[in-house]
Write a structure and sequence with these properties.
Elements: H1 9-22, H2 26-46, H3 60-68, E1 93-97, E2 100-104, H4 110-115, H5 146-165
Antiparallel strand pairs: 1-2
Helix pairs in contact: 1-5, 2-5
Length: about 170
Amino acid sequence: MITLEIKDDQVTAALQRLARHMSDMSQVMNAIGEALEYQTEQRFDQGVSPDGVPWAPKSQTTIEAYTRRGYAVDFRPLFGPNLDGTPLRASFFRQYGPDFVEVGTNKIQAAVMQFGADQGAFGTSRKGGPIPWGNIPARPFLGLSDIDRENITAEVEEWLEEVVDTDH
């Protein structure tokens, strides 16, 4: 085994700065989260999954159900009335800390939209109808795209450059 010991004040100082910053990466985690949230919103508006696959269109059953209930019909998938009045698109958020970042939504329907659900998967309504009333295809909106991966890499590289360049 070969051991290399570096005794250089400049290198030691740079490594110490890096170690200090690695214990709290909140700044870069926030930047990553901001970029991920933005890209998620863009994909949502375009109606595509993180890997660029277009979502299944809104079914005729759903359109007819909205019409029967007196709702205005938005033909874009995942756009439409919500029980609490807040659209899924408006519920995206990010949280970050010293060593993590999360982008998501706390809307109850988000998992069904992300992964899909079979008709009746959640039982029946008080009137005996299936919940959901029809099959819901998966329409993934959360996840990493190639652009997200590039953005994360760029954010980390920029942050590392700033860390190394500070406090000379």
